[in-house]
UniProtKB/TrEMBL annotation:
This is D-3-phosphoglycerate dehydrogenase. It holds the Pfam family ACT. SMART domains: AdoHcyase_NAD. Residues 1-30 are annotated as: Disordered. PANTHER family: D-3-PHOSPHOGLYCERATE DEHYDROGENASE 2, CHLOROPLASTIC (PTHR42938:SF46), FORMATE DEHYDROGENASE 1 (PTHR42938). Pathway: Amino-acid biosynthesis; L-serine biosynthesis; L-serine from 3-phospho-D-glycerate: step 1/3.
Length: 631
């Protein structure tokens, strides 16, 4: 039995329903939940629907979890010719140049707008109309962008590797998935690194400029050889290891520093993994291939240059920010660094009078590492597939800020995901006004080994079900844990082994809200928690227990729960009230603990009964309490 705590709770005032209990004779208008801190009422429970002709409209894809609309050629040509449907297609903004093959793929799915020179203000003004944004390194996707999107932006696709230009924290808070294209430009970046290494060693750029200025300076541009020299690769990931492989081919001795790289991968290429200090102090050439993170920011500075061999040469095709550029100018001036070849800069483009760029021992290129035809086509397709997949509700293998849930797990969990959300929604509607929700316990009964049951999705959906009806938050797999934590909601999970078919990932899900009053006292179990339980039957979510009462109703439409004295004729009496008011009953189920004592009646209704109808139900003599729930 495993219990996972998500967050510790403070008081969750903003999850406090304001309405009071729905005990018998209460004003039926209170049958409609309203909440003290905002104007959100039960009406909010009708799931937000944008409804383009694809599944993102259905609230949770990764978001609503599963793809429901498949993309066929017929469907897409119909969409293209119908102006109404066309306007319902997702809008994908491409803010930097992207390869045609990727654009074609995007166009087959959504309305694609390519706007390549948007100012930050223009981007913020535009983003509220977009479902997806595709950028390269030149667009800063800041918190302001996510704020301006007002919840519409679902995916940011980074057509490349580095995501340092995207505010990931803000993306996560706003429930926006960020995907990148991590593989298609690896070789291009590695080749550019090698080009800079060899070009720098032989002064190719400087000699070229000199000749174009009419000079012939053979003595000035004597270079250094690469063979037998030591190259330190800093960051032994995809690009770094390809640089290492190529440098070995040039006869260099290659060492690498990477705190996270497996030693056997390095050994396989004939590279020694060493400490940071050993790498920088023994190398003749230092090539940078780590990402820009708070840890790597300006990691090459006065102190680290001072540890390097005099006359060292530096190549940077990673990110400008890993170098303190003023310190590099000082190291170049003092001769510690003989030469530098730089593709990337702290500020891009750097200022025209940048001392670093103008330094005679520095070779520069304008962030061209990924800029080969082949890489750009590859990156464009890689990112287009990831963005389209995300918009369809699939979880991308290249998601940067969401847990990976493989497609087979997603499809298996689909009905349980709906069950989880509905149980969350139902449970929160049972909380009485004045109660602050702090702690939710979720129990999964399953025949599966805990390692074989990924509950993140279910937990996210329960969180969604609990929080969305009573706040403005839109919750998905990306932001569920963050928002729960932010709201002081602690969700603990418990998996209980049951001896049933392991074919079913989950036998039942129980949601308990602790330490609260309930507006439907019968929903409280013996331990005082609001407790409901559900199962998936024939692919349809069912409510199977309320408090200590067994019931069996499919979780569709609206639900009235009544507690009454278990006696003949109750179903008929309530049915009559509803029938007279033209409210169609879709199903009914009665559950009791002991014969002829108390029973719970669960009534599914197609229409929402008006106040008068609810009042009349309350007036049926044997009914002790009732509650109307919007699923
Ligand atoms: N100039 C350009 O056009 C391009 C630049 N890049 C940049 O190159 C860098 C590497 O890209 P990939 O190899 O694809 O990424 P990667 O994620 O495969 O490799 C990065 C490696 O850096 C390592 N690392 C992290 N922190 C480190 C630290 N403090 N010290 C040493 N190593 C550390 C990681 O363990 C990882 O192995 C990224 O910053 C990316 O943005 C990538 C492609 C094109
Ligand atoms: O992929 C990366 O990290 C790059 O730096 C490439 O940047 P770009 O897409 O060419 O602006």
């Amino acid at each position: 039995m495993a219990t996972t705590s998500i967050s510790s709770a403070t008081n969750l005032n903003n999850l406090t329903p304001a309405s009071s209990s729905l005990q018998k004779n209460s004003n039926p208008s209170s049958a409609h939940l309203s909440f003290s801190h905002s104007s959100i009422s039960l009406q909010k429970l009708s799931v937000h629907t944008t409804n383009f002709n694809n599944p993102i409209s259905r609230g949770f894809s990764i978001f609503n979890v599963l793809k429901t609309a498949q993309h066929s050629d017929i469907a897409s040509s119909a969409r293209d010719s119908d102006p109404v449907i066309k306007s319902q297609k997702p809008t994908i903004l491409v803010s930097e140049k992207l390869g045609e093959a990727g654009l074609d793929l995007l166009r087959s799915f959504g309305n694609v707008e390519c706007l390549y020179s948007l100012s930050p203000e223009d981007l913020c003004a535009k983003i509220g109309e977009c479902d997806a944004l595709i950028v390269r390194s030149g667009t800063k996707v800041t918190r302001q962008v996510f704020e301006a999107a007002k919840g519409r932006l679902k995916v940011v696709g980074r057509a490349g590797v580095g995501i340092d230009n995207v505010d990931l924290q803000a993306a996560t808070e706003f429930g926006c998935l960020v995907v990148n294209a991590p593989t298609a430009n690896t070789i291009a970046a590695a080749e550019h690194g090698i080009a800079l290494l060899a070009g720098m060693a032989r002064n190719v750029a400087q000699a070229d400029a000199s000749m174009k200025a009419g000079k012939w300076q053979r003595n000035k541009y004597v270079g250094v050889s690469l063979v037998g020299k030591t190259l330190a690769v800093m960051g032994f990931g995809k690009v770094g290891s390809e640089v290492a492989r190529r440098a070995k081919g040039l006869g260099m001795h290659v060492i690498a520093h990477d705190p996270y790289a497996p030693a056997d991968r390095a050994r396989a290429i004939g590279v020694d993994l060493v400490s940071f200090d050993e790498a920088i102090s023994t190398a003749d050439f230092v090539s940078l291939h780590m990402p820009l993170t708070p840890t790597t920011n300006k990691v090459f500075n006065d102190a680290t240059f001072a540890k390097m061999k005099k006359g060292v040469r530096i190549i940077n095709v990673a990110r400008g920010g890993v170098i303190d550029e003023d310190a590099l100018v000082r190291a170049l001036d003092s001769g510690i660094v003989a030469q530098a070849a730089l593709d990337v800069f702290t500020e891009e483009p750097p200022s025209k009078d940048s001392r670093l760029v103008r330094h005679e021992n520095v070779t520069v290129t304008p962030h061209l590492g990924a800029s080969t035809k082949e890489a750009q086509e590859g990156v464009a397709v890689e990112i287009a597939e990831a963005v389209v997949g995300a918009l369809r509700g699939e979880l991308s293998a290249t998601a940067v800020n969401a847990p990976m849930v493989p497609p087979e797990v997603l499809s298996e969990l689909a009905p349980y995901v709906t069950l989880a959300e509905k149980l969350g929604r139902l449970a929160v509607q049972l909380v009485a006004g004045g109660s602050g929700i702090q702690s939710v316990k979720v129990g999964y009964k399953s025949a599966r080994d805990p390692d074989n049951l990924d509950t993140r999705l279910l937990r996210a959906m329960i969180t969604k079900g609990i929080i969305e009806p009573i706040s403005d938050a839109h919750i998905n797999l990306v932001n569920a844990d963050f928002i729960a934590k932010q709201k002081g909601l602690r969700i603990s999970e418990e998996r209980v082994y049951v001896n049933s078919s392991p074919e079913n990932p989950v036998e039942s899900i129980q949601v308990q809200i602790s330490n609260v009053q309930s507006k439907f006292a019968s929903a409280l179990s013996d331990n005082g928690n609001i407790s409901i339980e559900g199962k998936v039957k024939y692919g349809i979510p069912h409510l199977t227990r309320v408090g200590s009462f067994s019931v069996d109703v499919s979780l569709e439409g609206n639900l009235i729960l009544c507690r009454q004295v278990d006696q003949p004729g109750m179903i008929g009496q309530v049915g009559n009230v509803l029938g007279e008011r033209n409210v169609n009953v879709s199903f009914m189920s009665v559950g009791r603990t002991v014969k002829r004592t108390k029973a719970i009646m669960a009534i599914g209704v197609d229409e929402e009964p008006d106040k008068e109808t609810l009042k009349k139900i309350g007036e049926v003599p044997a009914i002790d309490e009732f509650v109307f729930l919007d699923l």
